[in-house]
Task: inverse folding
């Protein structure tokens, strides 16, 4: 028998609805899919967050969205405004992109101050924050320094990528991020995990969340392995 329960895996999935070409009808179908599979959250485009949060109210699926997505180059003031609006719209988890340019420039004070400001406003509202590194553009030293900063500040998750860079989560990066983050900081994989086998592989590394649009393709095989009926779902959209 598998060494996991269905919810062990379903509650790893942040169902991604971030592709900019998704229509409102497709977003609504995606929210329903996340409810049907009882995912951890729906990560949706900011403009649709309020409606998403209303749909998820009373369920065990959390409403989440992005901040500074996907390039991270917004000013801190704009990111804070985005975060405050997202929290007001019912956002329970915020996935923020670091200022990639500042990281590559070694402007660590700016990077840390921004992460701290966004973490404080999120935690003050009683919600959680994930910090996206966009590892495809970084070297190991930069990734490690970001893990250290996030650990010192007390973010909730460190996350590999947006899913829209040249590369997404890699096993090497996930191992590095888990090794250099305190136990209190969780690790999220994004980009490239598309099968049950891939989900189980990253779970074994200590990953607790995975951004995915291929939720049905991962969770229906898990249900079959556990002797549960499959859930009918439309094909995945482009993206993660």
Result:
């Amino acid at each position: 028998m598998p060494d996991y329960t269905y919810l062990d895996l379903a509650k790893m999935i942040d169902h991604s609805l971030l592709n900019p070409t998704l229509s409102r009808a497709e977003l609504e179908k995606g929210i329903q899919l996340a409810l049907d599979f009882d995912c951890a959250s729906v990560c949706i485009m900011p403009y649709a967050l309020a409606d998403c949060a209303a749909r998820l109210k009373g369920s065990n699926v959390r409403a989440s969205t992005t901040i500074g997505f996907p390039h991270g180059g917004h000013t801190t003031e704009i990111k804070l405004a985005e975060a405050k609006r997202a929290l007001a719209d019912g956002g329970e988890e915020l996935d923020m992109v670091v200022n990639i340019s500042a990281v590559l420039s070694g402007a660590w004070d700016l990077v840390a101050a921004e992460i701290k400001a966004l973490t404080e406003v999120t935690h003050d509202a009683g919600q959680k924050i994930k910090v996206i590194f966009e590892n495809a553009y970084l070297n190991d030293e930069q990734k490690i320094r970001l893990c250290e900063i996030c650990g010192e500040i007390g973010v909730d998750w460190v996350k590999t990528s947006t899913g829209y860079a040249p590369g997404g989560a890699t096993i090497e990066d996930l191992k590095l991020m888990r090794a250099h983050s305190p136990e209190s900081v969780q690790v999220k994989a994004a980009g490239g995990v598309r099968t049950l086998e891939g989900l189980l592989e990253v779970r074994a590394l200590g990953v607790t969340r995975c951004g995915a649009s291929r939720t049905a393709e991962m969770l229906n095989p898990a249900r079959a392995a556990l002797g549960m009926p499959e859930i009918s779902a439309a094909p995945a959209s482009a993206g993660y």
Observations:
- The first helix runs from residue 6 to 10.
- The chain has a mean pLDDT of 96.
